[in-house]
Amino acid sequence: LDEVKALHEKVSTFDKTCLQYLKVLEAAEAASKKMTTHEEADKEVAALKERYNKVKASSDSWVAKVDTLLKEWTLLDNTVTELNTWVAKDKTSEGENQFSLEKMESTLGELKNIFKQKEKLVDGL
């Protein structure tokens, strides 16, 4: 979970940096329009915008994937924590567990489904 949080932070920072560079690119385009002869500058700005659009599309894709991955890992972590709390809470004074087998089976089934989704997401990266 910590690795996914760190990856999420890196991807989010990269996306914010992309937006900052877009502002610089737009400022350069506005400045080039004020030039007397701006044909060459227009071509360069157009080429840079094309590159920016490709990078931004890739960044958006990664942000969406990592957001989903973070949500799944958080859900998995919360479910495991809940299961651990539930198992620890249901002990009697003799140390025997007094919990419902049906509840345990449903929770473990949920964990299996979450893990399968996580594997698909990781494979998709």
Unreliable stretches: none
Amount of helix = over 70%
What share of residues are in beta strands? Answer: under 5%
Q: How many runs of DSSP E, i.e. beta strands?
A: 0
Q: DSSP helix count? A: 3
Question: What labels describe this entry?
Answer:
125 residues, mainly alpha, 0% strand, rod-shaped
Describe, in plain words, how this protein is organized in 3D.
The chain is mostly helical and 125 residues long. The chain is built from 3 helices and no strands. It has helices at residues 2-33, 39-89, 101-124. Helix 1 runs antiparallel to helix 2 and helix 2 runs antiparallel to helix 3 (101-124). It starts with a helix and ends with a helix. The mean pLDDT is 82.
Layout of helices and strands:
Blueprint: H1 2-33, H2 39-89, H3 101-124
Summed up:
This protein is an all-alpha fold and 125 residues long. The chain is 86% helix and 0% strand.
